[in-house]
Design brief:
- By secondary structure, the chain is an alpha/beta fold.
- It has eleven helices and nine strands.
- It has a domain at 6-212: Spore Coat Polysaccharide Biosynthesis Protein SpsA, Chain A (Alpha-Beta Complex).
- Strands 1, 2, 3, 4, 5, 6, 7, 8 and 9 form a nine-stranded mixed β-sheet that branches.
């Protein structure tokens, strides 16, 4: 296949349920000079068969043993022939003008990469009405400070010139759900970029997805900030303390929410259990912050008295 202008990389692991929407959203781009690289990361469902089933000569399928999302994206970069590279998670989608708008923005701003805003969707990819805006401020500092989004869902959002990767920059294969942030840290500290204030990507919020794994979140983000510190991005003492405090707040709050959900589970199940004489369809609980907000878990007097801020590390 001859070189295409844009290479779009989709890493896919057990993604048969979502993959068609992602693939069709890429093939429907108004900017059609593209190749779509689907990297099957050792799926155990029908993802690989589905990837081969799409009848479009612009699709390239890479099949590898399971090695994680970062290795899958790196395999896509190694395969890419385009002058520009975009990523899309297998459960997300692009609007038809996404690549055209971002390519024009990249050229007009004369930068190495661009990113936009994000359309938040439910698990059926229906927009919730929420738009997550990217920052117009310094991306590196905004990302590390973590008080607001920097480049939301960067691996379903940004378009980069391939020169960003020609020097060997790749995803850290020791990271999972913070690998995209790690890449953004590297890019924003060494290349030029621009925020396009337009939402062209749909982000699917899926209960139980990798981004909801608290232990993985803690492990990944601890490594992310350790790398940032080692690279000198946290040398400023006050900034470092604020960044690490926010990190501890996020990790502690995530564990708190998980513990609260588990504590509420018996109460919620009892509350929703049908009476013996009623006929009822099986009831399935979904636990998480949104669910618990509708039915808060009763707290002891001690809990009510000690809802203080979590301890933060001193560095």
């Amino acid at each position: 296949m001859s070189n295409q202008e844009i290479s779009v990389i989709i890493p896919a692991y057990n993604a048969e349920r979502w993959l068609p929407e992602a693939v069709h959203s890429v093939l429907a781009q108004s900017h059609s000079d593209l190749e779509l690289i689907i990297v099957n990361d050792g799926s155990t469902d029908n993802t690989l068969r589905m990837a081969y089933s799409f009848a479009d000569p612009r699709i390239v399928v890479v099949d590898q043993a399971n090695a994680g999302v970062s290795a899958a994206r790196n395999a896509g970069i190694a395969t890419a022939r385009g002058e520009y590279i975009a990523f899309l998670d297998a459960d997300d989608a692009m609007l038809p003008e996404n690549l055209a708008v971002k390519l024009a923005g990249l050229r007009n701003h004369q930068v190495d990469w661009v990113y936009g805003d994000l359309i938040i969707c439910d698990d059926q990819l229906r927009p919730t009405g929420e738009i997550m805006a990217g920052t117009d401020d310094d991306v590196l500092r905004t990302l590390l400070f973590a008080a607001k989004p920097a480049v939301p869902a960067s691996c379903s959002n940004m378009l980069a010139h391939r020169r960003c990767f020609d020097g060997g920059l790749r995803f850290d294969e020791h990271l999972s759900n913070s690998a995209d942030q790690d890449l953004v840290i590297s890019l924003s500290s060494s290349t030029s970029y621009a925020h396009l204030p337009v939402a062209m990507n749909r982000y699917r919020s899926v209960p139980g997805s990798m981004s909801k794994d608290v232990a993985l979140f803690e492990r990944d983000h601890t490594r992310l900030y350790d790398k940032a510190k080692a690279n000198g991005f946290l040398d400023e003492r006050f900034f470092r303390r604020r960044c690490l405090a926010n990190l501890d707040w996020a990790i502690g709050g995530s564990w708190w929410t998980l513990a609260e959900a588990r504590a509420c589970a018996p109460l919620l199940c009892a509350r929703h259990r049908p009476l013996a004489r009623r006929s009822s369809a099986p009831h399935q609980e979904t636990f998480g912050p949104a669910h618990l907000s509708a039915a808060p878990c009763p707290r002891s007097p001690q809990d009510q008295m000690h809802n203080g801020r979590p301890l933060t590390r001193v560095a």
